[in-house]
Design a protein that fits this description.
Length: 430
């Protein structure tokens, strides 16, 4: 036998239980990683009577009801498998159901699950058939009136628009996640998991939805409106990088639903990564250089089920200004939210945007146009800005990005094109 053969390989073998469970593995990538993940699980489940049998029953009969299969929750909630850390329910859903799974944001527990990951109990259910994958909701078309009956004094979006146009603070307010997010001060929102942060029916309604516009006694007929549908674009967002008020490098077009924006230097044009460390700028000062060194793993953006999440994977905090997020939580539109390391925050909700757009078309071009501000999200690394910082605006921060959401912007474009032009005239001397 060759003298360089590792001693460990002479004694390595896969137990029958692990081999059996690997028989239900989905996909053919990362064979060794999956084997180690299953081996780690088997060692935990063997300590619990009936747990192995219950897992095998769930995997072999996916359509049949099954019980929770649990393992102890670790201190940080994550599980390490071969130098990689991940959430346990995500790891085993990836092994046995969805090999392309990227994040826990893509999973929701079934009602039958007694120990879902999000419940923060001492045990976590890893039964892959106790979770479902989040589906992108179908957004109803926006019905643009053919004949405007707009009265600028009666805008349903006065709260949103007036705050945006007339009460912009000298410096944006600041909020820190999760401390500032406990008690929303704005509209009442549903607390159901599938509609988190959506306004209740009494708060927001579709003035002329397909189901109501031609009802009994209604003066409106469907022919009075032009339906404008939402279409998913090829690139869900684009990201531009700035240093102070200077754009640096090319714009990154995101086609993958999971995008990492970090401070490293991978030159391979990976569609999942935007490496800021690659970008050069001859005007860079020492503050910018030092800040860039601390971006590290940066931010992970997820686009899941019509919602955008930002997870701070840097050792330093990130700072986000998202009008959609601020509206959800009842904050001032210009508020800057601090996301500490290891935390994630929903920064855009397509369904909320759809509801606001459906309202605004009945109140004029200007109100619809105002929603374009909701489709741009600004985010700084390491250094914050706003009332609690000496930097007044984002262009004073050393390193920041601007995210344009293509789907909502294209939808707005189609609606505005149908609406024509603003009601308020403007001249060269006004």
């Amino acid at each position: 036998m060759h003298s360089s053969t590792p001693i460990s390989s002479l004694f390595s073998f896969t137990s029958p239980a692990v081999k059996r469970l690997l028989g239900w593995k989905q996909g053919d990538e990362e064979e060794k990683w999956a084997e180690k993940a299953v081996d780690s699980l088997v060692k935990k489940l063997k300590k619990k009577k009936g747990a192995m049998e219950e897992l095998e029953r769930a995997l072999s009969c996916p359509g049949q009801p099954s019980k929770c299969v649990t393992i102890p929750r670790s201190l940080d909630g994550r599980l390490q498998v071969s130098h990689r850390k991940g959430l346990p329910h995500v790891i085993y859903c990836r092994v046995w159901r969805w090999p392309d799974l990227q994040s826990h944001h893509e999973l929701k527990p079934l009602e039958c699950c007694e120990f879902p990951f999000g419940s923060k109990q001492k045990e976590v259910c890893i039964n892959p058939y106790h979770y479902r994958r989040v589906e992108t909701p179908v957004l109803p078309p926006v019905l643009v009136p053919r004949h405007s009956e707009f009265n600028p004094q009666l805008s349903l979006l006065a709260k949103f628009r007036n705050a945006s146009l007339h009460s912009e603070p000298l410096m944006p307010h600041n909020a820190t996640y999760p401390e500032s997010f406990q008690q929303p001060t704005g509209p009442t929102y549903s607390s159901s998991p599938s509609h988190m942060f959506l306004p209740s029916p009494s708060t927001v309604s579709y003035p002329h939805s397909p189901g109501s516009s031609s009802g009994p006694g209604s003066p409106y007929q469907l022919t009075d409106f032009r339906p404008v549908c939402y279409e998913e674009p090829q690139h869900w967002c684009s990201v531009a990088y700035y240093e102070l008020n200077n754009r640096v490098g090319e714009t990154f077009q995101a086609s993958s639903r999971s995008v990492l924006i970090d401070g490293f230097t991978d030159p391979s044009n990976n569609r999942n990564r935007f490496c800021l460390g690659l970008l050069s700028n001859v005007n860079r000062n020492s503050t910018i250089e030092n800040t860039r060194r601390h971006i590290g793993k940066g931010v992970h953006l997820y686009y899941v089920g019509g919602e955008v999440y930002a997870e701070c994977v840097s050792d330093s905090s990130i700072f986000v200004q998202s009008r959609n997020c601020n509206y959800q939580h009842g904050f001032h539109p210009a508020t800057v939210c601090k996301i500490p390391s290891g935390c994630s925050l929903k920064i855009f909700n397509n369904q909320l945007f759809a509801q606001l757009l459906a309202q605004s078309v009945n109140h004029g071009f200007e109100v619809v146009y105002e929603l374009t501000k909701m489709c741009t999200i600004r985010m700084s690394f390491v250094k914050g800005w706003g009332a609690e910082y000496h930097r007044q605006d984002v262009t004073s921060t050393p390193c920041w990005i601007e995210i344009h959401l293509h789907g909502p912007l294209q939808w707005l474009d189609k609606v505005l094109t149908q609406m024509g032009s603003p009601h308020n005239p403007i001249s060269s001397v006004s």
